Amino acid sequence: MKSILGPGLALALALSTAAPAFAQDAPQPPRIVVNGEGEATLAPDIAEISLAVVREAESAREALTQNSAAMAEVIKALKEMGIEARDLQTSGVQVSARYDYISKPDNTQESRLRGYEVTNTLSIRVRDVAKTGEVIDRAVSLGVNQGGSITFTNENPKPALTEARKKAVADAVEKARTLAEAAGVKLGRVTEISDTVVSQPPQPILAKAYAARDAAPAPAPVEAGENAYRVQVSMTFALEP
After folding, report:
1. Under a CB-based contact definition with an 8 Å cutoff, are residues 124 and 87 in contact?
2. Secondary structure of residue 129 in the 3-state scheme
3. What 3-state DSSP class applies to 200?
4. Neighbours of 177 (CB within 10 A)
5. What stretches of 176-226 adopt beta strand conformation (E)?
6. 89-119, pLDDT tens digit by residue?
7. Domains of the chain with bracketed CATH
8. Fewest CB atoms less than 10 Å from the CB: which of 4, 57, 130, 146?
């Protein structure tokens, strides 16, 4: 029987039939994958604080007016203390209705509008960490009555991260050598490496720091401590016969 396939189609079919023989994956060379960890500490040079002014009044307009006046005094005082405008940022303004709930004889509750509450939250970046307690104390004395969080950071954490990376790599290399020696094989060159920086969680302000202003004129006690920068690495080594 005479073939009805053209030469081009016949060749394509022949190549597709042979393709699986070339598609087989080459065997992976022997290797070992290890993880390493490193940590370095650095004294913080920036404190990031979140503070809020909360005011309540019969009308939303009145609550906002009172809140704005108090926050304006706080911002003015902070600037007089040396906090630059670039380090002050409004992070939220919220207006909400407030209700009183009254129990009735039939065991139901009746809600009555008590007024409106306005919350204005300010994020402050303090570049002189030693003044953190003074900044909190001054802000509270002028109208701040709600706290968020305080985070001690570093403007340039690169030196600490570099040190942590070196320690993480050294840790991974030591693990790889130990495993290779125990297995009776020879460690080869590094074929792959990656790293991950572990973030530092914010540190909350203690409520007693706000009460301190009523007991004594001293600034609220705040301890900066040290920031720990942690790095994890994953390294792949070839194994020689």
Report:
1. yes
2. helix
3. coil
4. 13
5. 186-198
6. 999 999 999 998 888 888 888 888 999 999 9
7. 28-43+156-200+227-241 (3.30.110.170), 45-153 (3.30.70.2970)
8. 4
